[in-house]
Amino acid sequence: GKHTVSNEEIIAFRKQHLGKGLSLQYKVPIKMVRGAGQYLMDQYGRKYLDTVNNVAHVGHEHAAVVEAGQQQMALINTNSRYLHENINALARELLETLPPQLSVFHFVNSGSEANELAIRMVKAATGEKDIIASEVGYHGNTNMCIDISSYKFDGKGGQGAPEHTHIFPLPDAFRGKYRGEDAGAPYAGEVKKQIDNIHAKGRGLGGFIIEPIISCGGQIELPEGFLAAAYEYVRTAGGLCISDEVQVGCGRMGKTFWGFQLHKVVPDIVTIGKPLGNGHPLAAVVCTPEVAKKFANGMEYFNTFGGNPVSCAIGTEVLRVVKREKLQAHALAVGTFLKKELISLALDFPIIGDVRGQGLFLGIELVNEKMEPLAEQTTYLANRIKEHGILMSTDGPDHNVLKIKPPMVFSQGNAEELIFYLRKILAEDFMKV
Ligand code: PMP
Is Transferase there in the keyword field (predicted)? Predict the structure, then answer.
């Protein structure tokens, strides 16, 4: 018979042979063996409701996406220097969702690679290398991406902001530097201050990068009016605007297909990742023709895997499933319902200080009566709800935000189930503060 490797053996091997900076989810790690829709199954056949995985966008192992990949894989997979319909088909699907100004694509293999390329474009198009980014922002794992990710360089093992990175305060209207409904303008003013800093050093602005909802920052919705005002400052200074849609893109916001559209702005560059391949490594950079022209300065851009026919078949099918199954409208309906239920939960349990987010990208922040973060209780909740078969993740600079960003097929029934168990656990002794 087949020898089944124990979880202890898997962990021991990882400890010895895999990168030492890799962490494991949960104190008792789970081995997942199957996925279907919004559910995962562990080795014991136990089913979990997944409220975490925004990569499995149209559902884990969606049959049509799997089939699209399998069929193309059996035919041909080459680099994009040969003609193939698939890369054009994927670009066409994306074009349908984007404003007309954003019309030129580079296909890559990860969100990090997308942001890396976006920053190269900024440098090539502006001739400047100074970048403004948000406090607690995360944009990827490469050298340049770490250099613009305060989440990393201001955290454990980090060495602070590099010379050409300029960080403005997390635009958190709940517990940040400026609070309440009118926080948009003062936070945009903080971006302007960074532009002035760059000028004071005798340099010019390259670009400004931000997520429409700052995920690692704790699902921070950009305050109303902030993005439009910040873009205006950036453009006046000759800089380019990048919207990092790696987490929030492809219909998840519900009201809009892309996060930037919530703010009625048009970026110069948009980066797309996680959901586009539904788990297959596929990402993209879309930019204006002006930026694309300046980037094509004579140096060829080549990417061995980017835009290959298999990846493009998968990405095209993901976007077609979003359309066919009306998942954007679904995210709006279920997300609106869930947010309303979370708000009423917050009325019963005041340790939920804030409920925020759009569509199926929500967060709840746990604080005490002095507005101090409750990290321990947040971790307790995430671990306790796992015992009820529900997977949740925590984040934010103070580790006190529960994030909800499930596969988009997450149903109203799933939302009810989640609320039921949250209510049950919040009533337990440990949660009383
Ligand atoms: N941007 C954002 C907002 C992300 O959350 C991530 C990954 N968590 C990345 C970029 C990097 O993507 P990848 O891990 O695919 O390189």
Answer: yes
